[in-house]
Each structure stands twice: as C-alpha cells, then as structure tokens.
Amino acid sequence: MTFMQTASKEHILNTLTAPLIEQIPFTARGDDLFIKMSQILDDQPEKVRIDLKAVLDGFLIKMLKNQASDIDLGGAGCRGKIWYRIFGNKSPDNSTQNFPVEATDFLLLNILVSSQRNLLLKDRNLDFSYGIDLSNGKNQRFRVDIYFDLEHLAMNMRRIDNTIRPFKSLGVNAEVAKALSLKYYKYGLSLITGITGSGKSSTLDTIIDANNRTVDSHIVVISSPVELIHKPIKSVVRHREVGRDVESFKAGAIQALRQDPDIIVIGELRDPETIMTALEITDSGHKTFSTLHTSSAMDSIERILGEVPTEEQNRVRARLADVLTCVISQKLVPSLDGKRVLAKEVLIANSSVKAAIRNNNISEIYQMLMEGSEKGMNTLEQDLKRLFTEGKISKENAINYSNNKSKIVQLLSETSY
Fold first, then answer.
1. DSSP per residue over 373-395, as a string?
2. Coil, helix or strand for 148?
3. What is the DSSP secondary-structure string of 213-266?
4. pLDDT at position 9, please?
5. What is the dihedral of CA 108, 111, 114, 116, to 10 degrees?
6. Sign of CA dihedral 160, 162, 166, 169
C-alpha cells in the first residue's frame, strides 16, 4: 500500500464504523460494552479489518510527516480529534472529521488480538509495540499504551526513533563514558532518569549500542514494551518484552541470572520489588542499567530508599552505596531553533558520594555535583547555564526547566556578555 493510499483512508473512519456502531445494544455499558464491541468486530469480513488498520496507519504516517513524537486519540478527553505532540506541544489535528468515541473504540480494538483484549479488560491498561511498513521499504515502530477513559478506549502512541544516536552525542566526560562501559566497569548500577518524554529510552539505547559495538558480551534487555531492537554486533543481545516473553521486570531479571549475562537492562524500576531485584543482581557481580521517573540524581537516590520499609533502609542504603556507579538525570528543553536539546545532570558515585549515601547525608550530594566537574559531574543548573551561554536555549527556559530556581538565577547572573 502506497503512502497516499494509506493517508487517504484516515477520512473514512466514520463511514467504516457507522454500521458497526448501529449493532451495539443500547443498554451495553462497562465491560459488557467492551465485550460486545469485540464480538461485532470479530464478525466483520477481513476487508473491513484491513481498512480499519489502514486508517490507523494513515494517522501514524501523518505523525511521521509532521515530525511528531506522540499521537493521542479516543475517549472523551480527545473531543473526537486526533492529537499530535510536535516539538513538545500537543494540539489537535483540525483537518480531520470529528470521530465518535465508538468509532475510535473499534479502531483500537482492531489492532488487538484476543489475549491482549483480555489483559486490557483485566488490568484496564495495555502496553505493547506496533509497527508499520513505510513506502521506502523500512519499518517504523511505536510504543503503545491503550487504557480506559470514561468506559471508552484511549490511546497514546510514541514514535520509536529507529536511529540510534552516536555515543559522542551524549556529550559526557571520559570518566562517565568509562563508568557506562563494560570494558572498564564489569559491574555496577547505572540509572538514566527523567520525567516521561525526557528521552530516557533513547539515551539507554545509545549506551546499549556502545557496549554492543565495543565489547564481546551477552546483553539481556527486559522492556515493557520492547522499543528499538538492537542487532547483535560484538554481543549477543536478547530482547524480552514484559507480558509477552516474560511475566514481569522482576521475573525477567531473576531469570537473566541463569542466562550467563554480562549486562542486564531493566527497562524501568517501577516498584519496590523490581528496585530490590536490581540491587541484588548488581550486587551479585553484573553490570545493570535501568531508568527511573525522577528529575535529579538526589531524587533518584531518595526514591530508591523511600520504596523500602524503615527497618530495611540501613541495609538498602549500604547496598546502594556499594553498587551505584552513575546517575544521568535529563530533560529535553525547547531550543531557540524550535526543536529540543538535551540537558542533563551527571553523578559519578565516587567514594565521597558513596559515603554520603551510606551515612544518609543525601543533601550533601548537590555540592559534590557542583564541584565535581573534573570527574565529569555537574548539576542540571550548570548544564542549563552552558546551553544558555552557547546560545541554544532562552534564559526563560533555562529557569523554567531547572530543579533549583534560586541556583539557576544565581548562575545566570554570573554570565556576562
């Protein structure tokens, strides 16, 4: 199917779904509505199913054409529109028709197999990956999250960047590069942290790729879902998707210990069990990478300690001090050229940092970051100042995206032109 054929079908969603909507019983609500719509869809001829998929693929092709990172549709919250996030700003596409929630329900149900529908009904949320074939013969992958919004289905899809950024693009110090490489550090826990949409997955993929290209090893990647697929270069690379290849992050990490790994990548430290498992497998002598939804290095350490009971904190604090290697906390900041640029805080767990963690003096770490430039450390505020000084971001955004407002104002006041 060509680009134009796929793109043109996005305007016929209402026509395709109108006969299906008419079959929904007036009294169907809640789970009964979901089950009945699934049955109606399964009874349709294959051509209807193919055309519905083409409609969704048309939205995704427009997403790529507009250089959007995300698409949202379905549920009451979208007001019948398709929404795209372009260079950080999310807005509706007013060139399309308004779609009733039942139309987008059928559109989303159409891409799910029965086992996925059952999981969605049980958990009220479903994460998975989706791919479309492009006219140039390549395949574009997306990370998908489908959930319920006032009894109807809503979806976010995020474009997965098929291009792995070169390691040099991270702009990290040589000491930090060594900490992230299996060649120099055979074990230890490295964390990539940031809010949703801060580019954590892209940075993690860059680090995986750098090790894959330079070290003979076995890398096990546990993700939910699997986004970018790394082709083996110098390493064996296994990809295990939670819910499809393995039950949970914790189960995948424990199972990985019996698979002779050198590097274990846990896509996200979502819960106390996974956090404790990550500490244990690292303590057993493996190099471990993971992500956290925290905005700074200090927040990351406090988040890990805060997830365990009070009586366990001293033991966990000592273990974290032993295994922590590096924390990179990052944000994507709007740049003056209308795009976004990476700003990052970098912590290397040297002896002073380890002592601060062990002695519960986390507040001292910010000063260590401020004074650790020779070892490649810096605060987010120092990096925002650098980006402002280099003419890449505005002063307003340097302040807005900082974690410590008073510190960034102080640093910017020292800048002279």
1. GGGT-B-HHHHHHHHHHTTSS-H
2. strand
3. HH--EEEEEEESS--SPPPPSSEEEEEEEBTTTBS-HHHHHHHHTTS--SEEEE
4. 58
5. -80
6. negative
pTM of the entire predicted model: 0.78
Measured between alpha carbons, how far is 339 from 128 in angstroms, rounded to an integer? 28
pLDDT at 243: 74
Angstrom distance (rounded) from CA 417 to CA 412: 11
**Separation between Cα atoms, residue 194 and residue 109, nearest integer Å:** 32
Burial tier of 414 (Cβ tally within 10 Å: 0-12, 13-18, 19+)? exposed
pLDDT value, residue 2: 41
Distance CA 372, CA 387 (A): 19
266: tokens are 């846990």
CB 150 within 8 A of CB 156: no
Dist CA 212 CA 185 (whole Å): 15
Count CB atoms within 10 A of the CB of residue 135.
12
Pairing assessment for the beta strands 324-334 and 188-193 based on DSSP bridges: parallel
| Ordered alpha helix ranges (H), 125-182 | 174-179
Torsion sign over Cα 131, 82, 102, 50: negative
Residues of the chain with pLDDT under 70: 1-11, 415-417
Amino acid at 265: V
| CB burial readout 308-327, b (16+ within 10 A) else e | beeeebeebbebbbbbbbbb
Q: What are phi and psi of 110, to 5 degrees?
A: -65, -25
Q: How far, CA to CA in Å, does 251 sit from each of 156, 239, 254, 255? A: 27, 14, 5, 6
Q: What pLDDT was estimated at residue 163?
A: 83
Q: What is the pLDDT of residues 17-62, one digit of tens each?
A: 999 999 999 999 999 999 999 999 999 999 999 999 999 999 999 9
Residue from 378, 362, 285, 359 nearest 318 by CA: 359
Strand spans (E) along 277-393: 287-292, 324-334, 340-348
What element of type H or E holds 71? strand 68-74
Q: Contact at 8 Å (CB) between 289 and 204? A: yes
Amino acid at 414: E
Q: Enter the tokens of residue 304.
A: 């890990």
Sign, CA torsion 412/415/416/417: negative
